[in-house]
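Reagents: none. Just compute today. Glyoxalase/bleomycin resistance protein/dioxygenase.
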Amino acid sequence: MMRDPNKIFHLAIPCKNLDETVVFYEKLGCKLARKYDDRVTFNFFGDQVVCHLSPEHIDLTPKMYPRHFGVTFTNKQEFLQLLDEVQKNELPFFQELTSRFKGKQEEHLMFFLVDPANNLLEFKFYHDTTMAY
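Predicted 3D structure written out:
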């Protein structure tokens, strides 16, 4: 089943400092929707990400697998525009731009960012968009 455009995916993640979280996600291009004493909510590329203040739940040694989240682009130009903005805004990479599964149908470009609470964000673009799912 394909995603129904009238539904918004929701993800809740920990953060250690609300102000630095807002700065990071706004530099990423996410719009701040709400800010409370214990959480901030963003429009994360059309979905909802809520960062809950919980410094005791921060992963001190994050790894790409198995826990990360992000966006799969179907438009290469939009993917490259985001990469350009990330670089201009000097957001911290966990992994620089690379190609995965080179030469295979599922080959894709990808990079990982790390937010101020060590949450890992993956952004990718499949050359063959039928491989996105």
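The mean pLDDT is 95.
Action item: order primers for follow-up constructs.
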